[in-house]
Amino acid sequence: MIDAGRKFLKAYDWNQGPDIQTDQQKGVPPPPFQKPYPKDTTLIDLVAPQDLSIAPIPLLNAINRRKSRRGFIDEPLSVEELSFLLWVTQGVHKVAVDIRHGKIETTKRTVPSGGSRHPHETYLAVSNVTGLQPGIYRYLALEHKLLFLSQGDPDIAKRLSEICHLQKFVAKASVIFIWALIPYRIEWRYSVAAHKGTAIEAGHICQNLYLAVEAIGSGTCSIAAYDQKAIDDLLGLDGTDEFVVYISAVGKIPIHSRYSP
Ligand SMILES: Cc1cc2nc3c(=O)[nH]c(=O)nc-3n(C[C@H](O)[C@H](O)[C@H](O)COP(=O)(O)O)c2cc1C
Known about the structure:
two-stranded antiparallel ribbon, 8 helices, 9 strands
């Protein structure tokens, strides 16, 4: 078991490894860059990146202040603040379309991704964001909009706390970011070499969240200790072709702990 875990972390040696042809090399069409959703759904608008009025803070201050924060207060986040956090973690600023078949070839985002495949989807458990009803949402990075998935518990944060093995601070979060991996989106190009990178990429995404919350009087603490089946079931994921890989709870922090210029 331990060997399998270590092997996953090593760089696959393309020269010495088995003769593997990727689905891309076989000419299989690429999977979609975003999980599809019913087209008749009403989407929820977010604040566009160019319209964000979040007061900037120096990058070095954000880096120096970064820490895991678990002491959340009851103050809600605004939709603008949530829009900002979604943008910095998965925002799409460029889409390249393959003119041969009209399909998206790559997306360029605010975080890096091997081969620009971006295999993660962002789900949110919202409990205290002004103007959003509590429940589960999915971020549509290509549209920069939210898809409302389900109402869930009235106190969805408490349910998440249970799923995270009763970690108490999770129950006090205003919004919980939940990143799920769609492995085939990157296996299509890299086959057995795909998996190491996906874990690294989750770190890139969450680090942006850690830094960005410092600019909005908030904090976050990332979480790897959770019940895999319970969280996948909550989001309606099959646990094989899509499953949760990382979580981070976000909430406002006391005024005296916030950044002030
Ligand atoms: C991959 C990963 C998983 C983590 N999982 C948890 C967790 O389940 N619960 C928790 O309270 N903190 C978790 N943390 C936060 C760490 O405890 C924290 O980063 C560490 O104590 C260092 O503190 P700092 O982030 O304030 O520097 C996790 C951090 C990482 C990077």
